[in-house]
Amino acid sequence: MAESLLSFTDRGIYCAAGDFFIDPWRPVDRALITHGHADHSRPGMGRYLATGAAAPVMRHRLGDIAIDTIAFGERRQINDVIVSFHPAGHVPGSAQIRVEHRGEVWVVSGDYKTTPDGLSEPFEPVRCHAFISECTFGLPVFKWAPEDDVRAELNDWWRRNAADGKTSIIGAYALGKAQRLLTSVDPGIGPILTHGAVENTNTVMRHQGIALPDTLRVTPDMDPKAQKGALVVAPPSALGTPWARRFGPSSTAFASGWMAMRGVRRRRAADRGFVISDHADWPGLNAAIAETGAERIFVTHGYTSIFRRWLESQGYDAAIVETEYEGESLDAAEPEDAA
Amino acid sequence: MKRFAALFTALDQTTKTNAKVDALAAYFTAAPEDDKLWTIALLSGRRPKRTVVATRLREWAADRAGLPLWLFEECYPIVGDLAETMALILPDATRDSDRSLTHWIGEIRALAKLDDPEKRARILDAWDQLPKIERFVFNKLITGGFRMGVSQKLMTRALSRATGIDEPDLAHRLMGDWQPDSTSFESLILTHDPEADLSKPYPFYLAYQLDGGPATLDAPPGDWAAERKWDGIRGQLILRGGNHYLWSRGEELMTDRFPELARLIDHVPPGTVLDGEVLAWKDGAPLPFNALQKRIGRKTVPKALLRDAPVILYAYDLLEWDGQDIRARPFDDRRGLLEDVASGVPEDMPLRLSPLVSFDDWDRLAKIRDGSREHMSEGIMLKRRDSPYRDGRKRGDWWKWKVDPLTIDAVMIYAQQGHGRRANLFTDFTFAVWDGDQLVPFTKAYSGLTDAEFRKITAWVRKNTLERYGPVRQVTPQHVFEIAFEGIQESPRHKSGVALRFPRMSRWRHDKPLSEANTLADLKDMLAAYG
Ligand SMILES: [Zn+2]
Ligand SMILES: [Zn+2]
């Protein structure tokens, strides 16, 4: 049997015909990167290829790297294969990577979300023979509410806190989720303050032309109590620390897909949990997979064994691939910008 | 149901007591009378009976969601709550309705008389008109697992704010054998007639733990009466109108479980209410808790058990005397009257007086406390001599000064995930001691660690799983924990031959290597000394 177009190695997903890796977790010569999150975009690669919209954040995070960029939809030949990048709807610049070799097409999803969030380039299904899909939220209990409902809830919470003289502190990943919150809230309610990790990413994104509302970086010499009725956007790990206590009376919240489960919501000891995820929910995963037309599905990070069994019952040829991607992690011990 | 669901959400979204009381008080001011009554009932543990078996509900929910049952069963342990799992997987409601809480509880109770296909039709119809949180609340009610994270004390405070009635008075009105069907908000809360319910108990006064020892008390030894703390079942014995009623602290009527107490009707005058400890008792001394355990949970008692483990009420307070509520009188007065009552009861009757222990200073009392285990006692109770009998857990007048728990160092060998709040965390562990070079499991424990420690051990368990048995993981024997417990008894059901009371993890012994955990022989020595 001929070697398959993509194979799974201890360094990452490898394409022999093109001699490159996709989102590798060990140093390799040539890496195609789906998006800038730390678990997909790691240091130490000889050469990087990513979308023009993903590159600035990667440079910001990884420093001086040899990076080449590619536009969404652009076809490029690498050795014997043709590659192209297609919007994944996960964070700005995030892509699914399509690999074609002698008519055989594989797609690596990276992380993806099928519903538009007003910030990321909306997800586009790509026809293929084999699809490597994440399944972070691959259980039927995960069904995201319409974006407008969540925005209304979020603004309600902020508005009520502001009226009660409380600061609203929300924990969200510095890359992607934080900016999505910024473009979701109503800036008329009050000032928006940001943790340094969030503001650094904001600066990068503003530079590349992404419109974000005005924000104020929290610095040691700022008097946080002078910022009445503010919304503070910080990485989840900053909640419950002395950094967060400087704002005086406050209400805290997390924004994550995990907040769909009451038990997790209560364990996290925040006042509120908003179900806002950068990953596809159950209907999203199923629709995306169906739209690829693929017969072979490889599932990575998430509820892989359950999701594989489900896919098989639906007639797919499904397998689990062990990777070092991390899904949407909730615990403070994990790297704050990995998702 | 919208109003009730909003209350549920408000309570669920805060951990702050004041915010909870505010939400409840607002609800008790605005809700319709019958919904208020049902809310009080739910918050005081008077839940409607289950009318549908859980298995059917799971099947119907999975079916309605178009999912195979195995997938539902995979989701359930991850979510950790059946009602929530069903609420999450079901498709969105297509209709909207706003029927009351009382209406839906009526619906649920009406299911009892229906056959399965009819039940199914009714429930699918309900699911289709209840949006998310209302559906979750409905599922909680129908699965019989409804809890709102609000103590009866907080509810009473909120109700007091909404009605203007004093808290202690309300606490008393809420006691006893009422059900929403047998009363109304009006007659239970607003116009309360004590004669109407002869079985109605008084709220129990609960002691606080005295952590710093008696030297930290705000009054000298002479202001305090001391008794031993007994390891039985707290009970309130009511003798009124020629009948007797025995209530547990959890407001459960236990009269029929302890029929021997009926003999007291002839020796204690009507209009008497006693507070004390129900103990298994033989030959002038309490039997180990083990003996009493056999009586708990038995609605009818076989003759042999009555003979082997007879009970008495070990009385320590008098709440009603000559038909009068005397709770406001000082402890010393009540004690004097109690001694009078007890002196009129013949020796072979199942009522005794829990003796006061005399002491001059705290050192002397500390020595007496050291001998607690030999007296089958858990420590010392301190009661302020001039204090009234209060209700609920109130700091200041009653203190329990327990003996230090027994401890043993043990090795963790199995781990299991928790559920609900602790879903995704490993929280239930099995511990073992050495028997030669074998590790013998002897107890489970699931409390005592901080959330941070549970997260740490969870990460470790994931990486150190040797074998999986369903939800249980066998882990590399590596970590030693100090297990604290209140008592030890022989148990043929356990491989180790012993069973512990209230085991919990008191310390993670990072400092101890595996080899220094205790042995089965150490446990057997403890059994011989304290069992
Ligand atoms: Zn990821
Ligand atoms: Zn990601």
From TrEMBL, chain A:
| Top-level taxon in the UniProt lineage | Bacteria
Q: Which GO terms describe its molecular function?
A: RNA endonuclease activity
Sequence intervals crossing the membrane: none
Signal sequence: where?
Answer: none
Coiled-coil segments, which residues?
Answer: none
Q: Which InterPro entries match?
A: MBL (IPR050698), RibonucZ/Hydroxyglut_hydro (IPR036866), Xnuc_lig_assoc (IPR026360)
This chain's protein is named Putative mRNA 3-end processing factor
Species this protein is from? Palleronia pelagia
Automatic annotation (TrEMBL), chain B:
Q: Where is the ATP-dependent DNA ligase family profile domain?
A: 304-435
Which top EC class is given?
ligase
EC id: 6.5.1.1
Task: Extract one GO molecular function annotation from the record.
Answer: ATP binding
Query: Does the keyword Oxidoreductase feature in the UniProt annotation?
Result: no
- Could you state one GO biological process linked to this protein? cell division
Q: Which InterPro entries does the record cross-reference, listed alphabetically? A: ATP-dep_DNA_ligase, ATP_dep_DNA_lig_pp_1105_fam, DNA_ligase_ATP-dep_C, DNA_ligase_ATP-dep_cent, DNA_ligase_ATP-dep_CS, DNA_ligase_ATP-dep_N, DNA_ligase_N_sf, NA-bd_OB-fold
Q: Which reaction does it catalyse?
A: ATP + (deoxyribonucleotide)n-3'-hydroxyl + 5'-phospho-(deoxyribonucleotide)m = (deoxyribonucleotide)n+m + AMP + diphosphate
Q: Which domain of life is it from?
A: Bacteria
| Gene3D superfamilies, A to Z | DNA ligase, ATP-dependent, N-terminal domain, DNA ligase/mRNA capping enzyme, Nucleic acid-binding proteins
* Entry-linked CDD domains: Adenylation_DNA_ligase_Bac1, OBF_DNA_ligase_Arch_LigB
Keywords of the record, alphabetical order, are:
ATP-binding, Cell cycle, Cell division, DNA damage, DNA recombination, DNA repair, DNA replication, Ligase, Magnesium, Metal-binding, Nucleotide-binding
PANTHER family of this UniProt entry?
DNA LIGASE 1/3 FAMILY MEMBER, DNA LIGASE-RELATED
Q: Identify this protein by name.
A: DNA ligase (ATP)
Tell me the organism.
Palleronia pelagia
